[in-house]
Amino acid sequence: MSFQLSPNHLLNRLFKKEADQFFVSMAIRRLALGMILIFEPIFIFIYFNNSISLTLLFFGAIHGIYGLLAVYGAKIMSKIGPKHSILISHFFFFGYYLCLFLLSYDSLFIFISLAVILKSIAMTLFWPAFHTDFCRFSENHHRGRVVGRLNVALMAPTIIAPVIGGWILAVFGYPVLFTTVLIVLLTSAIPMFLSRQVRIKYSDSYSQAVKRIFKKANKKTNFAFVFSHLEWGIDLYLWPIFMSVLAISYSSMGGITTFALAITTLFTLYMGKMSDRLIDRVRFLNIGSALTSISWVLRYFVTSSFPAFLAYSLYRICRTTASIPFQALLYEKASLKGAEMDEFIVYREILINVSRFFFFAILAAFFAVFDQINLVFLVAAAASLGFMFMGVPPKIMRAGWWSKK
Fold this sequence. Notes:
single chain, mainly alpha, Growth Hormone, Chain: A, 16 helices, 0% strand, globular, disordered N terminus
């Protein structure tokens, strides 16, 4: 009797469920990107000679192009399936980080231009497929718990990734960090080969996808999408630059992010379970939104490493309180669309990324005149209240100008 197992058979035994294969692939991917995530905006910031405006235009261009291409990404997904779309996206992410790697040696403009194009295409192939695939196998009555599992699966490697990335960057520099990220990123594709392929039909034309944005029925949801992602964009791109301006070392940045995420992880699964109860879900969404807003105001006063750690830890906990029920409600809304689930997802991707492009363009003009980054944290504090529009906002918000017909 032979007990030999092929590598593919062994992997299938380890990860029997399709959801497990999906989570493992996304966890490895997050490990790769987590090592560079907080340092990527700083790298671009340094490349543009410490210009916040040019840095924002760089990332704004990526989101803007993706917003314009999202429909075509969905059409490609409908032809080759979400799994293959995600797999192919990894090669474009690889090309993006390869361009940044080459910029470490030669600051040719062609590399920075190619980087924008490659990442836009990578996001176009990845995000519609990711959200569609997740909606497909997450169950309605356990969606909050599954969202919690997804967040923990993505957060667990992210806990160690920033401190690893900070250490590599402090000791070896950006070239070695980019090389490490490229290797781990390609490894993340392996579990995806174990999953069965599913065909999903995307039927919207470009004009139909855009028209969804202007439907009256989507007005409240539009506010939730736009405000939540403008807030997230400030955290993703301007917070790391702010820490760099404060002269916080790379290793300290990695440590701040790692410890803050470790604290948040302990909180995440609990929130996922609680969000499965509809009454608590909406209540937690509103409470988390208000607390996230307060945490942004506190971040305005950060001046050194330790306050940055405290403020960021508080922010992550507060945002988790809002984001878990927010995501559960998002995927619930998408699944209720039935056959139009992927059309709903693509309309959302167009809206949030085009709006982020215009927002970053406005911020770029602002920073051309002013150089105080933490002023934008107050904008993030206001935008954080937009999470509430995914559920049932308090009466004071429902009475606003946006509720008028």
